[in-house]
Amino acid sequence: MNRITRKVNNDATVSIDRTYFDVPLQFIKQKVEIRYLPDNMDEAYIFYENEKYPIKKTNKVENGKSKRKNTFSINY
Predict the structure, then answer these.
(1) Which residue segments constitute the domains of the chain, with CATH numbers given?
(2) Secondary structure (3-state) at 51
(3) Taking CA atoms, which of 40, 55, 59, 71 is between 20 and 30 Å from 21?
(4) Dist CA 53 CA 55 (whole Å)
């Protein structure tokens, strides 16, 4: 398996070969070791403290439709 180290973005994603993957929120802003087979990215995972945490390919359409809390409201 290939091993790479990546820093997790603020939106809980990492980039591998120009493809973004969703990772668990607990890893935001941390450096993580990702293990994967280039032929089978569906089984890629984060290896952290002898545990495996699965990652999945980011679905850009699904993310674009998700509702977000608007904490700021403009009152004119």
Answers:
(1) 2-59 (2.40.50)
(2) strand
(3) 71
(4) 7
Write down the H helix ranges in the chain. 60-65
Please tell me the distance from the alpha carbon of residue 45 to that of residue 35, in angstroms, as a whole number: 6
What pTM was estimated for this model as a whole? 0.78
- With tokens 């668990």, the residue in question is 24
Indicate the SS3 state at residue 25.
helix
Paired tokens of 61 = 């359409």
Question: For residue 34, which of 61, 6, 11 has the smallest C-alpha distance?
Answer: 6
Q: Is the dihedral of CA 30, 55, 22, 17 positive or negative?
A: positive
Write down the residue that tokens 């280039």 correspond to: 38
Q: How confident is the model at residue 59 (pLDDT cuts 50, 70, 90)?
A: confident
DSSP one-letter code for 2: E
